[in-house]
Amino acid sequence: MNFISDNLAGASAPVMLAMAAANDGFAAGYGNDAWTRRVEGLFADLFEREVAVFLVTTGTAANSLALASLVQPWGAVLCHHEAHIAADECGAPEFFTGGAKIVGLPGDGCKLAPEVVIDQLARLRAGAVHQVQPQMLSITQATECGLVYSAEEIAALKQAVAPRGLKLHMDGARFANAVAALGCAPAEITWRAGVDVLSFGGTKNGAFAAEAVIVFDPADADEMPWRRKRAGHTLSKGRLIGAQFEGLLASGHWLDLARHANAMARRLADAVASAGKLRLAWACEANEVFLVLPSQAQVALAAQGAQYIAWSDGALPAGQALQPGEVVGRFVCSFATRIEEVDRLAAVLATV
Amino acid sequence: MNFISDNLAGASAPVMLAMAAANDGFAAGYGNDAWTRRVEGLFADLFEREVAVFLVTTGTAANSLALASLVQPWGAVLCHHEAHIAADECGAPEFFTGGAKIVGLPGDGCKLAPEVVIDQLARLRAGAVHQVQPQMLSITQATECGLVYSAEEIAALKQAVAPRGLKLHMDGARFANAVAALGCAPAEITWRAGVDVLSFGGTKNGAFAAEAVIVFDPADADEMPWRRKRAGHTLSKGRLIGAQFEGLLASGHWLDLARHANAMARRLADAVASAGKLRLAWACEANEVFLVLPSQAQVALAAQGAQYIAWSDGALPAGQALQPGEVVGRFVCSFATRIEEVDRLAAVLATV
Amino acid sequence: MNFISDNLAGASAPVMLAMAAANDGFAAGYGNDAWTRRVEGLFADLFEREVAVFLVTTGTAANSLALASLVQPWGAVLCHHEAHIAADECGAPEFFTGGAKIVGLPGDGCKLAPEVVIDQLARLRAGAVHQVQPQMLSITQATECGLVYSAEEIAALKQAVAPRGLKLHMDGARFANAVAALGCAPAEITWRAGVDVLSFGGTKNGAFAAEAVIVFDPADADEMPWRRKRAGHTLSKGRLIGAQFEGLLASGHWLDLARHANAMARRLADAVASAGKLRLAWACEANEVFLVLPSQAQVALAAQGAQYIAWSDGALPAGQALQPGEVVGRFVCSFATRIEEVDRLAAVLATV
Amino acid sequence: MNFISDNLAGASAPVMLAMAAANDGFAAGYGNDAWTRRVEGLFADLFEREVAVFLVTTGTAANSLALASLVQPWGAVLCHHEAHIAADECGAPEFFTGGAKIVGLPGDGCKLAPEVVIDQLARLRAGAVHQVQPQMLSITQATECGLVYSAEEIAALKQAVAPRGLKLHMDGARFANAVAALGCAPAEITWRAGVDVLSFGGTKNGAFAAEAVIVFDPADADEMPWRRKRAGHTLSKGRLIGAQFEGLLASGHWLDLARHANAMARRLADAVASAGKLRLAWACEANEVFLVLPSQAQVALAAQGAQYIAWSDGALPAGQALQPGEVVGRFVCSFATRIEEVDRLAAVLATV
Question: Where in this chain does the record put each Aromatic amino acid beta-eliminating lyase/threonine aldolase domain (chains A, B, C, D) (predicted)?
């Protein structure tokens, strides 16, 4: 019962097969191969428009390159203070940008609200040489607490920052889960809602190591080839990533995988609700379930070998603070999570 | 007849199988998996000593991390002026080091001689705050012109820089080819000869995307985990690289592949010598053949669809300058080069 | 009635004379001059121990160099979220450190309490490669809200961070005012209390452009000469700064100036208290007075041409929030503030 | 007889007086003062056009800011390999630019010729992601060997790089000496000849610490305020630099000083020529004299206490190599060099 993260399984079978199939023969190097070309076309289809695509192997690289291409060293990136770029990448955004400031903001469930963003913008005066200048807003979809922004919410955030000219970045490490949850077109929650650049995650959704920076206005992508190369993220055998994405994007495989992961999380959340013993820290909207675990639940889970993360970061909503002994447990479902495991876990949780 | 580079084929079959075999089940993330652990052991065996190992996906990342970990921003790295770190990585070493200076030196066939290094050191005064301070010497094994340093040559270079306290880095993108060529133990041309840190290349030798930074004194590796993470090179599913190296290192597969590549180059060079029509720009010591090609040879190669690179970088030794119309053609053999292709190429070259 | 800042006057007369006196003849360049040597001796006397001294022209340079010398790019510097290094230097610390993270913490009056620091440390796990590593605590003395840390408070902060090995930096842009306020020896509130490196401010206290980085353990200063030079802060005619500090430090002139500034602020605060019309936002402990100004006071001040800054940053203590129309006005006194001006200002404030 | 450098004297009397005169009263901070405003106007007059002006205290800062504002981290700056930015600033340009590459080129007397530049450009392919991209050419006027570029020579260099879109930077640490030598308008050898950005030196020409970055197209200056602030080079009491420049630029004082320095060097060179004992390494075109000194000359100079630098950098022109025992001695004259000292030195040199 491993619910630690969605990046602990290998690749889905079709992705592994695509990698194996891509192995034969010679191919042009450094992303000039046929797989990468085809993937660019697949992304254009997926997003219903021309896009610039840059394949890399990690989400940290994708996020950091996206930020560095659109933010100057004296720029500020506004985001939730528990956003992956702020809290979990060891300062990679600062490294790639040459020292831009990642400004963390509060928000329930790692979601940002327009008024919080507007308030922060007011505190960073435009043109004041003593202060960093806000140049980007970054949101995570689905959030680090498993919540999903609607298209309207995203558009409202863009509207909040547009007067100051900020770009909107979406960390889509779990973008597939969000799209599956919303049942929307990818375009709806990205460029049509004002997103300028997207880190499209593959690794947490069935790939081995495949992330794509999707730049919706190609003019915003001018610096990317140089920045990617300088960071050592331009693979000579680029088809390794290309093939993974071809495996993911063909026939909607990526969405099937995400729907499965979401369904497993939903099944778990429903079972917990039915049992009526435990409360959720945040709503289950994608592929993660956050449960408030009293100590006897923690003991039971440990006894049964259920693996999860004790979530220290997310402050609970006002009025729902943890009682002594309680922790928030994060249970993540992935493409590889089996229904039997979910039901075993639910059974354990029903007894506490 | 594709002799453009040794990074245009996919992975060798055993490497691909190792990747596929590594795909099942859950594994700890971020390099804490069993594959990575085993590979660390394999490298310790290979080098006959404790080593610190850091797996990444590109040679640029391996080199840049190796440099950044041991050179301060005001440091200088001495190397050949056509070294990959100086000429082909778009300033990645400068990015990773925070602006250290890569100081290019001359040398036939991209090889450095101790006296050239000593002469440069004399021009960079120790402690003079106006000048960058030399802190590392980097050599490429085999060199960008396909030559191989002997253990004695390496030791002499280390001796040249040791009084000033420089570390010795080896860019081993083609380390396997050098070991195969010399028939020596890997330890002999690395730490026993004074090498402090090695970029051990897998990608050009049968892997898909697998390079290892080998740090011989673990104390030199303190900064590496942070630098790798900040650069986005700590894969969550680290077994992807671990499995490739396990495939390579098991049963000496890596050396078999390198021996094959070298043998193919040797076969080509011998055929050219037998034909007596063309001259080599540099001796064929590993897996590359550099031929001086008159225009009629270029025409014949193009007509037969032979692919190679016109090598603009390497200045020819004194007295062997190119005649009008001549170019140096670089023909690289890899694990995937087939004997039939070599013979076809040799046949074309015999006719010019 | 200019109370905007203590950096708007020129230099005190003795400092200006020292500059003029230093103008004659030739002197060795780049800080190897006699003035700089003598200033190093004066600082050693002042702090009652050997110190390493690095003269620069701005506080931003002093702070950033101090941080960069002791914090790695993946390090974190804990400080108040309104500290000058966090809010007013346009990301200079990030630039000099190569992208370290400045982590802002709350605290009344821009003062930090040990428990806040300890709480933050607990959230940054030692050795966790995903997170920046806390390596320095930086406090401002006197704080941005004009408060002064006692020697005991400083020692308690050092004790809070010592188990994790953090260095303690003091931004002493108004160090003289703090020493004057406490009536203590400079050593007491610096190295004896655990301070590792001090930005000793001269510019706000009678110099034209003179700041000194004082490193108490010379081993901590190894990188400074290179970092200063690379940042363009090693003046060829270093005596320009040396002479200013000689003017300041000779005969206790620096403390006389600070005592005057403090006395002017105290006089203002006392007058306001006597008048009983306005309340202080924070206690007047050094050379600044922060007053809560209702709108009629703002109007009166404007009408009389009194210049001050509306202080937007410092959140007031709980229970003392601003009422509609109120602002906090910052009134700074300097060596150049004349008693007549203070009394004129006090008279205006007494009428509102 | 101190001929070591032109940065060892203090400030000229009018400059010192201007500083003293600027000391009274309050002034707006951070370069918003009246002195700085007036200096901007003086520079506009001097260059006969609108210019953007950024005052700093060191030449290293001026050069590095000029480069960083117009060169991306993956850019290359072409310059002479003994240029100050390449050899004497400890990597400051790399620091400020975020790791751009300073590419050193050969040339007699530290002067660059168009063909050398064109040849290097051909080796850096436009758009090749593996290579840094040339974005700036930097020349020194007068050069590090005391030679002066004519307006025609500068225009030819700009023409050589214009097709590739490079900006032209002039390191004018001794710009005044060059203008005085050529007797031209400052505009002629700057923007009219294609210079985009100039480091206008004051420190070597009678100021204490005053350099100005002059950006001829204000659109090129957008980044400068932020970069200067982040580097700690935005002085709060900006009038300190403003006053120095006002002192220099008023009534042509800067040119008078430069003419004096040049005349002293000319007098020395003429005396040496008359004596017929020693040969010049390079022509005396500005304020420096480079003499080939046999060992008996070195002994005589030492015996008489004449101070100069043994110049190790500049390779002598072909056919004029140093004989055993010979060194090149650099003798620099400044605004403060007295005719008696020159004559004493000449007398010593006439005897060897």
Answer: 3-276
